[in-house]
Amino acid sequence: MLAPALSHADPIQQRRGFGVTHERVLAVLLAAEVLLFCLIGHEFATGKNALNIIGLGVEIGLLALALTPVIVAGGIDLSVGSLLGLSAILFGKMWRDGGLPIGVAAALSLGVGALGGGLNALLITRLRIPALIVTLGSMSLFRGLAEAIARGVDNFTVPEHFQRILGEATAQVPVLAAAAAVAWLFLHRTAAGRSLYAIGFSPEGARHAGIPVERRVAWVYVVSGVASSLAAVMYVAHWSQAKADAGMGYELAAITAVVLGGTSIFGGRGTVHGTLLGLFAIVVLQNGLILADLPKELAGLLTGGLLLASIAVNQILSKLAKKGA
Amino acid sequence: MTNKTNRLFCWKRELSVAGAYGGLLLLLAGAAPDFYAGDKFRTILVSSAPVLVAAVGMTLVILARHIDISIGSQFSICGVVAGFLAAAGLPMPLVAALTVVGGGLMGAANGALVAGLGLPSIVVTLATMVSFQEALRWERQGAKVMGPPDFYWFGLGQTAGQLLVVAGAGVVFAAFAWGLRGLAAGRAVYAVGSDAEAARLAGIRPGRVVFWTFVTMGALTGLASLLAAVRFPDVDPNMGKGLELQVIAAVVVGGVAISGGRGTPVGALVGVLLLASIGPALAFLRIPAQWEKAIQGAIILVAVASDAFNLRLRRHAGAGLVAR
Question: Which pTM value belongs to this model?
Fold first, then answer.
């Protein structure tokens, strides 16, 4: 069982052998992308557009930041997009039909996310069901509950003052920055965060090293749930409505950002700054193509190609590094 | 982990899902006998035929310890291609053959990246899913393709066309259910999925097996797409949206283990039928249709949770925490 997990790239070897990390290459690529769109895009290089780009990336960014520790620990969470939809609908329901103040409803919907994440955590750590399957099932369950509660047609329009508070760059930038800072400090500067790398690399080894594997993994999924509902609140404020199909397909966009950012899908390797670079590489591409009057489908094609190229190069580099060692 | 106990365990799993399906049918017989009166059954069979064909392919891929989430996009592309070929005046058998080959080529692209370069299949097929989907959207911009008259139900009329669709899916299912048990190639898929290194030492080439599994997945997706497309006079370029998750869910409910090497096409068949019957059953039990997805999700979770209580899964202690 362990052989395939050990066969992937050894990050230390890779760094010593080549001095180029995945993140550095991606940063250069992102810079090139920005430069290109500055030249060919109309009004790309404006402060307003920079805020626009962050606004486009905030919901998927929150999901991707929470998914980074999940994937580093060797797991996956496909349910984040659906949980976003369910939290959004319950948020609208509690505010409009429950008569709660909008702030309280928003806070309570974070609890919804914690519960949803808790369900995933319970099934994954207690029953030891593969995370891919658990979150595939809960993805369907959460989206289904959202549709059932909304009865297929209902959506909730939130008041304008709420949109002004949370739905604009003045809130989006600090929220994304704070989430990124928290994720970075946790993953790279705390013992619990570092232990996730050990868990992702080898759960059995981590257990022998005295790491409470189940507890750590469980928390990672609960946090992922809370991040989904935070993204739901930001989504509702951003688009000024809560609907059942909110966040449809966001899970794949977020996973793409994480993997493009250099996190190994097998776990044990990845960084928060890599995820942010991956996220902005995608969002800048989407935004820039539109401003340069190029077909917007190119964004998906290039993202797919970039994703394949980046993991292929990683794989080849790690094979070379292994031969050299 | 002998083959014999593997088998016993497999059938136990399939029988319990079949039992759940039987229970649903009995419940309907008691609560809503009308369910059996009309042609509801036939409708379910015809609409699940393409899903079954794709599920057989997915069974192969998951047995080999891989996954393919690009089949929804492949499905849409194959459907559109079939529509165009038919509109260009090619005879239907040639259209069918070319569609299957087209699917096989897309599967070969996945297979080459996974088996040739050794990249993780979930990332490869995530990338190809996005690329295929966007390429199709660029080309079509969501516009439907109008098929010629002999495209709709293969030009045979509804009854004969439905029969052909169900029979086609049945033949594919029977062939693979038999082949996976009886052919060396079928056993090799199990061997590679159980333990690729042991399979290699036993003289099997795991890379080759994985490559051909993906090619087969693509070809079956092409066939499935054709069987789905002929049900309507025009081809919707979004027809494959969400198919990958629908198919994976059915296969998993049917007891094919995501950790590879365990499961059968029979399980996939029961899974497809069970999940396809939820929607129509809800209508007859007067439960709002919006609950369908939630109930399907709950069924997936209950099915895998009941698996987990089995002692055998406890042996894979570490595997429970890992995605693939």
Answer: 0.86
